[in-house]
Amino acid sequence: MADATPPAPTTRTTPDGIQLPDGFSTLVTIAYDTDICFWEKEVTPPGLDGGDAIEQTTMHNTSLRTFRARSLSTMTEMSISAAYDPDAYDEILAAINEETTITVTFSDSSTLAFYGYLKTFTPGALVEGEQPLADIVIQPTNYDPTNNVEADFVMTEVEGT
């Protein structure tokens, strides 16, 4: 077995982007129904997850277990807390599980577009003196249902980011 080259420390450099100064106003468009009757209060965009490490340890290891990264990543669910019109029930029922383009428009006008579907719509308790809200979950699929192929998300940055 070849001798390992130890990792060399590196120095963090200043990011070349511009951080979002505020989350307001972030909007979500479901292409299947672009004017669906909910109003975003909080939006948690999808994340990216590399998955669990693949253990590579063998009887030849001498001091540490070894691991490797997976080849594929997962785009995680996104969530929305939203005010809603009760009429949304009909719209949500029609849109739920419909694979379509989902677009997140960030407060700086950059966009993240991906294939996915509206997975859940869960209204919260209706309480006197409080705005009725619902929790909405969008499941990214990364699958183009028209062409039946894997499809990456598209991040469109605004100038200066």
Task: Please give a handful of descriptors for the protein shown.
single chain; 161 residues; mainly beta; Elongation Factor Tu (Ef-tu), domain 3; seven-stranded antiparallel sheet; two-stranded antiparallel ribbon; 1 helix; 13 strands; 5% helix
Percent of sequence in beta strands: 35-45%
C-alpha-based Rg, rounded: 21 Å
Top CATH class: Mainly Beta
Low-confidence stretches: none
Molecular shape: elongated
Tell me the count of domains: 1
The number of distinct β-strands equals 13
The CATH architecture is Beta Barrel
Helix count equals 1
Head-to-tail CA distance between termini: 45 Å
Output the helix-strand order.
EEEEEEEHEEEEEE
**CATH level-3 fold name:** Elongation Factor Tu (Ef-tu), domain 3
The helix-and-strand class reads: mainly beta
Topology:
Blueprint: E1 27-30, E2 38-44, E3 48-49, E4 54-55, E5 67-68, E6 74-75, E7 78-84, H1 88-95, E8 100-105, E9 111-123, E10 133-140, E11 143-144, E12 149-150, E13 154-156
Antiparallel strand pairs: 1-8, 2-7, 3-6, 4-5, 7-10, 8-9, 9-10, 9-13, 11-12
Structure overview:
By secondary structure, the protein is mainly beta. It has one domain (27-47, 64-156): Elongation Factor Tu (Ef-tu), domain 3 (Beta Barrel), CATH 2.40.30. It has one helix at residues 88-95; strands spanning 27-30, 38-44, 48-49, 54-55, 67-68, 74-75, 78-84, 100-105, 111-123, 133-140, 143-144, 149-150, 154-156. Strands 1, 2, 7, 8, 9, 10 and 13 form a seven-stranded antiparallel β-sheet that branches. A two-stranded antiparallel ribbon has the order 3-6. A two-stranded antiparallel sheet has the order 4-5. It starts with 26 loop residues before the first strand and ends in a 5-residue tail after the last strand. The mean pLDDT is 95.
